[in-house]
Amino acid sequence: VASLTKKVPILTLSGLSKQYLVPGWRVGWIVIHDPIGAFIKIRTALQKLSTLLLGPNTLIQASIPSILFETPDSYYNELNDKLHRQSLLMYNEFVDIDGLTPIKARGALYIMVKINLNQLKGIKNDIDFANKLVREQGILVLPGTIFGMANYFRCVICPPSHVISEIGKRMREFCDKYSVNAISSSKL
User: Fold this and answer.
1) Per-residue b/e over 36-47, b at no fewer than 16 CB within 10 Å?
2) How confident is the model at residue 188 (pLDDT cuts 50, 70, 90)?
3) Is the CA virtual torsion 109, 151, 134, 186 positive or negative?
4) How far is Cα 102 from Cα 115, in angstroms, rounded to an integer?
5) What's the rounded Cα separation, in Å, for the pair 165 and 124?
C-alpha cells in the first residue's frame, strides 16, 4: 500500500468471511496507510471500536496464518468458478417462475429476487412470502425489508448444485400455488 502514494491516506479492508466461506468467524481487518497523519482520529476510533466488537475465539485466531499463507492459489480459482456456476444455476432456477424476478449476483454470495405481488394471490409482502415459504416448503430466505428492499428476498448461492435444484423445484411449487394465473385457471 505504501508504494501507491506518499500523500493520500488509504484504508484497506479485508476479511475471511466471503473468500473462505466462514461468515460466523468474524475475522476481518483494516490496514491504515496514513503518511500525512490525516487519520489520527479515525485510527483512535477504530481501535476503540475493535475492543467493543465480539471477535473470533483463540482457536480460530490461531488458524489464520495457515489459512492466509498455506492455501494454494488453485483454491481461489476453483471456489470462484464454483460460486459463479451456483449463482447462475440459482438465477436460472428462478428466472422462469411466475411472480419472481431474480437479479444476477455480481460477486455476492446471494441473489436478490423481486416478488411481483400482483402475480401472487394471498401474499401480502416479502415477510409474508418468507414466512409462508419456510412453513410450506422448508426454504428459508431473508425478506428484503431487512435490507431496505421491500418485496424482495435474498437467497444464498452456497448450497451444492443438487440442493439449489431442489430449492428451484420447491420455489416453483410454492409460486404456482399462489399464482394469479393458476388460481384464475382453476376457477374455469
Assistant:
1) eeebeeebeeee
2) very low
3) negative
4) 9
5) 26
